[in-house]
Amino acid sequence: MTDHVWTTRKDTGVKKLDKADLQRIDAWWRAANYLSVGQIYLLDNPLMRTPLSKDHVKPRLLGHWGTTPGLNFLYAHLNRVIDERSQPALFITGPGHGGPGLVANTYLEGSYSERYPQISQDADGLRKLFKQFSFPGGIPSHVAPETPGSIHEGGELGYALSHAYGAAFDNKDLLVFTVIGDGEAETGPLATSWHGNKFANPATDGVVLPVLHLNGYKIANPTVLARIGQDELDALMRGYGHTPYVFTAGFDDEAPESVHRRFAELLDEVMDAIAGIKAKAEKQGAQNAERPMWPMIVFRTPKGWTGPKKIDGKVTEGHWRSHQVPLSSARDTDEHLQDLSDWLSSYRPDELFDDEGRLLDDIASLAPEGELRMGASSYANGGLRRIDLKLSDFRDHAVKVSEPGGEIAEATKVLGTWLGDVMRDNPDNFRIFGPDETASNRLQGVYESTDKQWLGDYEPNDEGDPMARVGKVVEMLSEHQCQGWLEGYLLTGRHGLMSSYEAFIHIVDSMFNQHAKWLKVTNEIPWRSPISSLNYLLSSHVWRQDHNGFSHQDPGFIDHVVNKKAEIVRVYLPPDANTLLSTFDHVLRTTQYVNVVVAGKQPGPVWLSMDEAIKHCTRGLGIWEWAGTEQPGENPDVVLGCAGDIPTIEVLAAAKILRERIPDLRVRVVNVVDLMRLQDAREHPHGLSDREFDTIFTADTPIVFAYHGYPWLIHRLTYRRNGHDNLHVRGFKEEGTTTTPFDMVMRNDLDRYHLVIDVLDRVPGLSSRYAGLRQEMQDARLEARMHAYEHGEDIDEVQDWVWSDSGDTGKSKGGPQTTGGDND
Amino acid sequence: MTDHVWTTRKDTGVKKLDKADLQRIDAWWRAANYLSVGQIYLLDNPLMRTPLSKDHVKPRLLGHWGTTPGLNFLYAHLNRVIDERSQPALFITGPGHGGPGLVANTYLEGSYSERYPQISQDADGLRKLFKQFSFPGGIPSHVAPETPGSIHEGGELGYALSHAYGAAFDNKDLLVFTVIGDGEAETGPLATSWHGNKFANPATDGVVLPVLHLNGYKIANPTVLARIGQDELDALMRGYGHTPYVFTAGFDDEAPESVHRRFAELLDEVMDAIAGIKAKAEKQGAQNAERPMWPMIVFRTPKGWTGPKKIDGKVTEGHWRSHQVPLSSARDTDEHLQDLSDWLSSYRPDELFDDEGRLLDDIASLAPEGELRMGASSYANGGLRRIDLKLSDFRDHAVKVSEPGGEIAEATKVLGTWLGDVMRDNPDNFRIFGPDETASNRLQGVYESTDKQWLGDYEPNDEGDPMARVGKVVEMLSEHQCQGWLEGYLLTGRHGLMSSYEAFIHIVDSMFNQHAKWLKVTNEIPWRSPISSLNYLLSSHVWRQDHNGFSHQDPGFIDHVVNKKAEIVRVYLPPDANTLLSTFDHVLRTTQYVNVVVAGKQPGPVWLSMDEAIKHCTRGLGIWEWAGTEQPGENPDVVLGCAGDIPTIEVLAAAKILRERIPDLRVRVVNVVDLMRLQDAREHPHGLSDREFDTIFTADTPIVFAYHGYPWLIHRLTYRRNGHDNLHVRGFKEEGTTTTPFDMVMRNDLDRYHLVIDVLDRVPGLSSRYAGLRQEMQDARLEARMHAYEHGEDIDEVQDWVWSDSGDTGKSKGGPQTTGGDND
Fold first, then answer.
1. CB-based contacts of A652, cutoff 8 Å, min separation 6
2. Is the pLDDT confidence value at A800 over 70?
3. Is the pLDDT reported for residue A688 higher than 90?
4. Residue A37 within any structural domain of the chain
5. Residue B720: closest CA among chain A residues belongs to which residue?
6. A592/A661 same-domain check
7. Confidence at residue A205, expressed as pLDDT on a 0 to 100 scale
8. Which of A341-355, A464-478, A797-811, B542-556 is predicted with the least confidence, judged by mean pLDDT?
9. Which of A824, B92, B228, B751 could bridge to B178 as Cys pair (CB 3.0-4.6 Å)?
C-alpha cells in the first residue's frame, strides 16, 4: 500500500488556479459530453468532419442522457484534484444509467483502450466506441462490470453509499467519490446508508465523499429532495452527520469559466477539510478518533445539462424529458437530425480532437497518471489487490466426539471461536457484517480478537461491551447496509461474511440478484480478477424461531439463490458443528461464488468426528452407515435422506425407532451437506452424475427425504433422476407460529414420528404389518402436542438430542444472559 | 364516516389536567406493565394474592420486555387524548416485539375480551391471558394479526411509517399514532418512509404522528439515533419535514406525576398543533393545501423502563440486557424468583384490580368508549370498512379483433384506460402506488381521471404534468414505500394496486412474505374481515428490458410468490390486451389474495376477442384450436404450451412455421393465463385435476413449453403429472444483456426457430426426416443475430408481430416522446 498523505492544496505547492486550468477542465467536460452523446446516437462519422446524415444515426436509440453531463463535470474536476494531490480515488456512480459518461471519461484518460485495445484512441476507435454502446454484441448501457473503474452498476438503485463505505473500510488512503442520484436518494437503502459515517474510522478507513446529484427529476417525476426547501435539505444532511457544501449551476447564463472556478474552489475547500479531518484523526490516534462532521456536496444542476433546451417546443434541458434519449427521431426527421447535429457541434469537437481523432495533449494532461486514473484503479478491480486469507487449522476447534451424537455443541458458537482466529490473523482484510445479530447468532467468539466498530457516542454503560472505534465486526440494523458494505469490501479485494437470521435475508434478495449477475458477467471479462466469494451465514433459522413465531420463519432464500447461474451459487447445510467448521474453511478459500451456509445456533448433537466431517463435506453428501441398518451388498428397503441440522436430528431419531421396532428393515441414511450435489452434473458443477446418484439414493427404492426448507426445491433439483418417482419430501410447508421446537416440526410433518409413518406408508407391505406402530406414532404426536400445550415445553422424549435449550432463555445454562443478546 | 372535527384541547372544553387525571394515567400504565410482565413470566397466580412460587413461572420464558413499558406509557396517554377529543385513532406498533403491551392495553380497555370472550375480565381471564402468551396453542409474542387493533406485526422491521401513511390516505379523520423503534429506524425502508409527508394532503388525508421511541438499544448494540447529538437528531427530523417535540424521562428520580404531566402537556401541544394544521388546510382547500412541518415526538426513555435496575449486579434497565427476558432464571433460582416477585409487586397490583381481578372503574374510565378504543377500531379491521369497487364494464375498452393477432395494442396502455374509469368511479378508495413507473408502464390513461398526489414544491416546468395536491396515484422511487403504502391502504379497507418493473419487485420480496403470512393467519381468525387482495402489475418485464440490460432482467418474483400458501397466491400471465383487461376485472374483485399479474407494455398482437378472452381467462388455460393443426378426435403429435406474452408470440410463430413446413404434423397450442392451473388440484385451489390436465396436455405426447420465467418452475408445478416426463420447458435461463428483443429470446433458446428445433428433436421420426428444416432454423438464428450485431436492430422477419417498437424510443411512432418517461 502506498504511504499516502492527505494534503491540503496549499501543502501540495501547486500554483493558483488560472484561466488555462479552467479551460482545460471545460474542454475535458465538453469532450466527455461529446463522446457521451456520440455513444447514444452515432453509428458512424464520429468526428463530425462531414455533415451528419441519417445513416450516421443508430436505428435504435438506447441510453440515458439526463444524468450524464453532471457525471462528466464531476469526473473532469476530480481529475485535477487527484493529480494535484496524488490522491487514490474510486468513482462510484450511483446513477448507473450514466454509463456513456463513465465510458467516455475512461476512454479520454486512456484506461479504456488499455483494457479494450480495439477501442483505440483514434477515429477508428471512436467509431467503434460509439457503435458498441447499448448495441447487440457491444456493451451495456449502464456502468456495468465491463466499465473500467466501476464496482457498482447502479441499474437497481440504492446501494451507492453502502458500496462506498464497504470500499473505504480498511483502505485508509482511499477517497471514495460517490455520486448519488436524487432518484436513488429516495430508496430506503440509500436513505439509511448515510449513517455509514457512524461506523467509519477517520484514521484507519478511507474517506467517503458523497455528492448528491440533485438534477431534479426521475423518469417522469420530480424528485423529493429537489422539491423541499434548501433549509430542509441542509438540515437533513446535517442530521445525517454531514456538512453540506452546496453548488448550483446551469440554470442561468453564467460563463463556463466562472462555473468551473466556483466548483474547483469548492472541491478544493472540501478536500482541504477532509485533509484536516484526517490530520486530526492521525493525531488523536485510531482508538480515540472522533467522528467528524464529514463534508458532502449538494450538486444542483439541470437534468440533461448542455443538451437541447427545447425539443418540439417542449422544455427538455432541466426536465425529466432529458432522462433517456431526448431526440428520439434523429434518424427519422430532418428537424431532429439538425437538432442532433447542432447539439454535438455545440461541444466544438474540432477544438478537442486532432485529425486522427486523438484528444489534444493539453486536454489529456488533465488526467492523472497510471493507477491514479480512476478507470485504472486497482481498487475497482479488487481481485488484483486480493490476498488469500491466512487460515489457521480449523481442526484445532473441532468438537471431539466418541460416538455419533455423543457430544452437544452450538455449531455457530464453535465456528465463532475459529473465526476469532481468522480475524486475529487477518486484521486488515476480513470483516463480519451483520444486522445486530452476530452475538445472537452465537459468533461472540470473534470478540476475543476484535470489537464492533462504532463511531457513535459512547456511554458509561458500554463498559464491558465489545465496542471500539476500531473493530472488524460492523453491525447496523439494516440488512441492506450490511450487504452493501460486504459487497463493497469484497469488490475492492477483501474477504468477509454476513451473518443474519434466515428469514430476514430475503430483505436483500434483490441485492443478491445484482451481485450474482455482476459475478456472472465478470467471469466473462478477462481483465477482471476474481474476487472473494460472498458468504452468508444464516442462523436463527426456520426451525428455531419457535419463540418469535411465523414472521421469523422462512427458509426460501435458498430457493431464490438457486435461480441464479449454477457457476455462481453454492448452498451448504452442515448438520453439526464439525461439518460447519469444515464448510467455512472451504468457502473462505473460494472466489467468485455466493456461498449460502445455513447452520443452527442452538446446542445440537455433533455427529461426526473432525476427520469424518472433512470427508463428508468434501463429498458433499454421503451414506451414514452407522445410522442405518442395511447389510453390505444388499439394497436398502428405504432411504432416509436429510439436509439441515433439524431434519438430520429427526431422520436419525426416526431411523432409531425403525431400528428398534422393525429390525429386519434395511434402512439407509443419507445426509446432504452440499445441496447442489442433488442437481444434475449437467446443470451444476457440483452435481452428481446419474450413476452416482443412483448409487447413493438407488433408482427404485422409496426415499423419504427430510429437508430444511420448502420441500419442492428437492423435487426441482431431482426431477430428472431415476429415483424421482419414489421420492417423498418433507419440509417447511408454511405452517408456523409461536410454539415449542418439536411442535414446529410436527406442524410441518417433519417430525420423527411422521417420518416413521411415511416409511410405513411407502415401503410395500409395511403398512398392514405395522398398523400398531403407525397408531403408536400418531399417539406419540398427539401426546407431544398435548404436553406442549399444557406445560409450554416439549416432553423429555423429544428433548433427547437437545430440544431443551431452544427457548433462547439460557434456562438450562442456569444463569442469566450475559453475553450479548440472544434472539431478536 | 363520522363528521369528525380536529379540535384543540381548549375547544373541547375539558377541564385542566389535575392530579387525579395524572394518577389515573399512572395507574393504567402500571396495570399495563403488570399485565405485560405477567404475560411473559406467569403461568398462574395472576393477581399475586399469594406469594409467588416457582410453579407459577412458565418453564420457557419467551417474549420481549424492553420496548413494552414505553408502548404502555404511550397507549395510556393516548387514551386520554382520544377520549377528550373524540379522535379516531390507530396505534401502529413499529416495535412489534412489544406484543405483551398491546395485548395488555386492549385487555384493559375491554376490546380484547370482546374478541376473545374466554379471556374474560376477571382473575380466571387474567390467568388465561398470562398463560396463552407465547405459549403453544396460544398467541404469538408479537403484535400479530391475533392482536386487536393491529394492522402491523412488526416482526420484520422497517414498515411502520409506510403502513401508517397507507392507512392515512383518504381517511381524513384518522390519527395514525405510529411508534417507531430506534432499531427499526436504522432500516432502509424506515429511513425513507419519513418522506411520506411529501405525499399526504393535510385536508383530505389523515394525520400520521410519528413517535421515535428512542430507548437506546437493539438486541445487543446501542442504536445509531440514540448515539448522535440531540442537535443532529433534531436536524434529521427537520430535514425529514417534521417539527420534533422531544420528551425525555426515566433516567432520574422524577416523580411519576411530574413525568406524566410533562408528557400529557406535550401531547396536548402536539395535538393542538395538528388541529391547527388541519384547520389551515381546510381553509386553504385541498387543492391548495400546503405541506406543513408536521409534528413528531422524540420519546427518549430507558429500555426496560420500570424493570429491574440491575440483575446479578449488571445494569439492566436502560440497557440492551432488557431486550428480551431479563430474569431468565426466575423458575430456577430463588434470587431471580424474588426479583420477579419484587418487580411485579412494584406495580402495586392490589391498587389496580379488585378481588375478582377486574380493573378498578376509575382507572378503566381512562379508556375511550366503543370504537374509539384503539383495539376496537374498524380501521384496524379494514374488512369491516371495505366496500366493493364500482367496476364499469371493462369490455367497453376491449380491442376489437377480426382475426387472432390481427390487431396490435399495448396491453398495459389499454388496461390504463379502464383503470382510469375505475379511479373516476371510486375516487375515495382506490389508489395506484408505484416507484415512478406508472407512465413508463403505460398506465397513463389513469391521468384522465386523476393526478399524481404531490405535496413537494411546484415549479413552472411542471405545467402539463399530471401532478396535484390531491390525486390517487402515488409515486416515490422506493418499492418499499409503495408496497408499505399499499398494504396500509388495503389493511384499512380500501383497494389498489402496485405497478412496478418485474425485475425490481424483488426489492419487496420480504414485505410480500410478511403480507402473505398476515393474510394466511387472518384467514384463521373469525373476527378479521376479509380485505382486498394485494395486486401487482409487473410490466417492463424480463423480455423487454433488452435496452436496460442484465440488471433489469429477472422473472423470479413468481418463483418467490408460489412458495407461499396456495390459498393466498395467484399468478396470471395474460398474453394480450384483452386477456389483461379480463384478468384485472377479476383480481380487483377478490379478497385475501396476493395477485401477481405480469403483462407487456409494448405493442403486441391481440389474439382473442373480448368474449374469447373472458372465456379463456375464466378457464385459466386452454387449447387455441386456431393456432394448431390437430384434427378433431385425433391426438396431437406435439403440444406447444406457452405462458406469457412473448413466449406466446414465439410459440405461435413456431406453430406457423410447423404448419407451413410440416403440414401433416398435428400440433396443439395451449396457452396458460392462470399459472396455478398447472399445479395439482390437491395442492392449489385453482389446480387442474390429473384428468383435466391429461385432456389438455395429454399423458404421453411431447410437450414443448415456452414460459415467461425460469423454466424449472413449470417442472416444479407439474412434476407429479402423467405427462411430465415428456415435458420440455424453455424460459429465461439468466442469459441477458443489452441487445435486441429477438436476440434476448435467442440467447435463452426461447425463440421460434429454436422451438421448431425442439419439436423436431422431440417428436419421434422428425429429426431425420427434417434435417434440412433443422439446418434452416439454425441458419435463421445465425442470420438474425448477425443482422442485429451489424445493424443494431432485428430483421424484418421477426419484426412481424411487433418487434419493431420495442426499443422504447418511440421511433416507429414517428415522433418524440411526450407522454411521460418511457423506461428507466
1. A405, A607, A627, A642, A669, A801
2. no
3. yes
4. no
5. A725
6. no
7. 98
8. A797-811
9. B92
**What confidence tens digit (pLDDT) does each residue in B265-307 have?**
999 999 999 999 999 999 999 999 999 999 999 999 999 999 9
CA-nearest residue to A99 within chain B is: B548
Mean predicted confidence (pLDDT) in A402-409: 92
Looking at A344, A374, A404, the residue that finishes a domain is A374
Model confidence over B462-510: pLDDT tens digits?
A: 988 999 999 999 999 999 999 999 999 999 999 999 999 999 999 999 9
CB-facing half-sphere around the CA of B560: CA atoms within 13 A: 30
CB contact under 8 A, B219 and A440: yes
> Which of A40, A60, A487, A544 would you mutate first to test chain B, the one with the most B CBs within 10 A?
A60
> What sign results for the dihedral spanned by CA atoms A705, A708, A713, A717?
negative
Quick one: B411 and B556 in the same domain?
yes
Domain stops at, among B573, B604, B635: B604
pLDDT of residue B811: 30
Please, are residues A578 and A610 in contact by the beta-carbon 8 Å criterion?
A: yes
If asked whether residues B159 and B241 sit together in one domain, one would say: yes
Whether A637 has its CB under 8 Å from any CB of chain B: the answer is: no
Q: Do A738 and B554 touch (CB under 8 A)?
A: no
Say if the Cβ atoms of B136 and A788 lie within 8 Å.
Answer: yes
One domain, residues A588 and A641: no
The minimal CB distance from B239 to the residues A239, A333, A520 is found for A239
Do B533 and B578 belong together in one domain?
yes
Which is more confidently placed, A62 or A522?
A522
Task: Check B811 against A222: CB less than 8 A apart.
Answer: no
Strand order in the sheet with A534-539: A467-468, A452-453, A473-475, A430-434, A495-501, A534-539, A594-598, A569-572
Looking at A29-72, which runs of residues are DSSP E strands?
Answer: none
A319 and A251 in contact (C-beta within 8 Å)? no
Which whole number is the average pLDDT over A303-330? Answer: 92
CB B441 within 8 A of CB B468: no
B769 in a structural domain? yes
CB nearest A228 (choices: B315, B326, B457): B457
pLDDT at B547: 84
A313 touches chain B (CB under 8 A): no
Contact list, B798 vs chain A (CB under 8 Å): none
**For the segment B10-29, what is each residue's pLDDT rounded down to a tens digit?**
988 888 999 999 999 999 99
Q: Which A-chain residues 102-131 have CB contacts (< 8 A) with chain B?
A: 131
Separation of alpha carbons B297 and A135, rounded Å: 53
Residue A151's domain comprises: 64-103+136-330+362-374
Q: Tell me the pLDDT tens digit for each residue of A223-252.
A: 999 999 999 999 999 999 999 999 999 999
Q: Do A807 and B240 touch (CB under 8 A)?
A: no
- Measured between CB atoms, does B58 come within 8 Å of chain A? yes
Element (H, E) at A175: strand A175-181
Instruction: Indicate whether A808 pLDDT > 50.
Output: no
Question: Which residue stretches of chain B have pLDDT < 50?
Answer: 1-2, 802-823
The letter for the amino acid at B695 is T
**Contact status, residue B213 vs residue B179, Cβ threshold 8 Å:** yes
A98 shares its domain with A243: yes
A744-767 mean pLDDT? 96
Q: Which residue carries 505547492 as its cell?
A: A13
Q: Are residues B658 and B796 in the same domain?
A: yes
Enumerate the residues of chain A whose CB falls inside 8 A of the CB of residue B309: none
Grid cell listed for B564: 407461499
> Nearest Cβ partner of B236 from A223, A239, A325?
A239
- Assigned domain for B492 exists: yes
Instruction: List chain A residues with CB under 8 Å of B189.
Output: 188
CATH code, domain carrying B591: 3.40.50.970
A617 touches chain B (CB under 8 A): no
Whether residues A571 and A644 share a domain: the answer is: no
ipTM metric = 0.96
Q: What's the confidence (pLDDT) of residue B820?
A: 35
Query: Which CATH number goes with the domain that contains B721?
Result: 3.40.50.920
- B815 interfacial to chain A (CB closer than 8 Å): yes
Please classify residue B463 by burial: count the beta carbons closer than 10 Å to its beta carbon, then call 0-12 exposed, 13-18 middle and 19+ buried.
exposed
Domain count, chain A: 3
